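Fold this complex.
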Amino acid sequence: MELSVADLKPGETAKVRKLAGARGYVARLAALGFTIGAPIKLVRRNQGGPLLVSLRGTQIALGFSEAEGILVSPVEEEAKAPQANYTIALAGQPNVGKSTVFNLLTGMSQHVGNWTGKTVDQKTGTYDYHNKQYSIVDLPGTYSLSANSEEELIARDYILRDHPDLVVAVVDAATLERNLYLVAELLLLPAPVLLACNMMDVAEKEGIKVESAVLEKAIGIPVVPMSAARGQGMEELEAAIEAMLLKKTEYHPNLPAILPAHKPVLEGLESMITAYVPAIYPRDWVALKLLEGDDALSALMKGAMPEAEWKAVGTLLYKHEDAVLDIAGARYQWIGRMVRAAVVEPPASRIGFTTRVDRVLTHPLMGTAALILIMGCVFWLTFSVGSPIQEWLGNIMGGLGDSIRHGMSGAPKWTGELIAGGVLGGLGMVLTFLPILAIFYLALGLLEDTGYMARAAYLTDRFMHMMGLHGKSFMPIVLGFGCNVPAVLGTRIIESKKARIQTALLVPFVPCTARLAVVSILAPIFFGKSAFWVTWALVGGNLLVLAILGLILHKAAFEDEHVAFIMELPLYHLPNPKTIGIYIWQNLVGFLKKAGSIILVASLIVWAFSYFPTGSIQTSYLGIFGQWLTPVSRLLGLPWQVFVALLTSFAAKENTVATLSVLYGNLTTALPAAISTAAGLGLLAFQMLFVPCVGTIAAIKQETQSIKWTVFSVVLMLVLSFGAGFSIYQIGRII
Amino acid sequence: MLRELLELIASGRGGTVEGIARALGLSVAEIGDMLSRLLSLGYIEDFAASCASSCADGDEKKRSACADCSMSAACNFGAKAHVWILSEKGKNALKAEERRIPE
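Structure:
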């Protein structure tokens, strides 16, 4: 018959042998300290009530059925007072399961406070093992001990000042190479280190095999493989801690090497500071840290040494200010040796999901085809779902305008027209496009959050290479897809003034989100279900113009530009609905704010000029001005109203839609009646290549520091946009 | 090791972290950690992080320039892709190394 906790008598002690139940339940018990081998004592048995047990210095109440699921084996009662106390520091990076190890060791006997004088949490606890008591101090999670943060300072100062008997370094077996840097630094401190190689189950699941015995030999310190979240390896850890503290374990750490060139420097430095190093600090460690450029220790030694002697130290350190590259580099070499010795990663497991997908999505040909397809899908989704909703809202808005005019028939005519034509006609119609924008942002948000946009940027880099625009120019150009303003400002990273100016000239040809949003609104009005093909072609057209201009500019000035960057692409992951929701919300709120300010003001100005002084658009101020423009707009096949709308986009791209709405009312029905399809296509091409918004032009002026180049940029875009609109319309007419 | 990585970034060979890892015979995780180290030591800068998010929390000049843009609140195109470039400190370290080699 199997013995369980429920079978124990009060005062009787046993060892946990097995936990029965579902995996999640077992994990919860393990987290409470019910791990295999843990001593458990029945304290009290209440008739029909819970059982009170003592585990790891804590009393826990268990239901009868829970107690029955904890199978135990009897042990001889060894209830003696603890014979010795040891202090153990638990170190590790964040997210390596350090807290789980701490909770499993200490159970409920924990105390949470603050490190003296700091706001960082300090967790301490105790556990008993083989009649000895161990105090555990959970050090803050840190990536190194280089005094880059308060947590790092706390961790290393604790080890130096409080001299724990042992440091247990918890590492993540699945990312061992990212965890060993901290271990390399811990080994330099005056406390023995034991390596708890946690998350072995996760590593195994990912096909990574960590050979702990080999790792133990390579580093020269005890290594305990474990999976704390499953409660596995805790008994072995406790046994290893005991063995180490009782000096039953070999401990000959293999430390990272110092470059031969730095040895005399280090020795010289040590002799210079040796008389002034506070007693708690090892002198060789302080010398090494000073050579690494450690600010906290520099300040300490500066205060401890006479000025003249510190000056000599400072001169030596200045001469070797980049020694940290070699010291840290040697640690990485050490890590590489350890990992290569102990980690077996089958070739198949190296090819993760991201790598497999990236073989297609970042391939020069397949990736470009995928990019074109994906962008096509974005436009298709935007138009096929958003446009019908917009049409419906547009009809409602139109009906509302008519009702207002009718309802205000008793008031002066201009007041009704102001509200119906100016406010509802401009701002209201712009707002009907919110569903289209929401879907557009949803698609962009999805691509960004899954990590695809980074691949799009990478492919753009290849595209830039093809036209010779490699180097730092590519980054502002890629950023231009978001907004041209920061993209132009980003050109300041380019050292060569000539290259900087030329990149600033190219950036406005990248269709920014606002430009794309306007095209997303106008394209379905002219092209219905084919709108996404047209939009896709327009984006391609802009990039073609950019490429041709880039090639010309490359011939002129980019010959000697060097590529001086590398890209780190994120892993693909499932999109987070909250992140995407926030992205859409922020964009729509931004759009609404703008609609309520710039677009409303522009709408009212356009309305006022189109209404006064006669109440008829043809004889209004705007009408008179527009008729001046008619010879030019006729070349594009556009009525002067549309041409005026294009010009208002100079203030903000969205104004095109607002102005058209003021002048035409319901765009969905009015525009196709007023403009031919060829002229409509020309209008879209014109919009895509037209002068950027005033913010971008101001940024060009700021970055080029030249009115000449700013004017050149504006004229270049005017010529190209007009040329494109004219050519498309004239060719379309002939066809 | 870190100097080699700096030199590789400066040379432009590799293109991506994966390319660098292949060139140095290391894992992507190792290169990622080394890049984080170089960043904390001030030898490299993350261009994308400093520029792509400039509208939201970048320097004052960029923020004010973005103030009129309706998209500025969510202007994060490409922010997930880190673009590492050498900082002035990184360039100086390589220049010092070049000067040291002929000796």
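Residues 77-81 of chain A have pLDDT under 50 and may be disordered.
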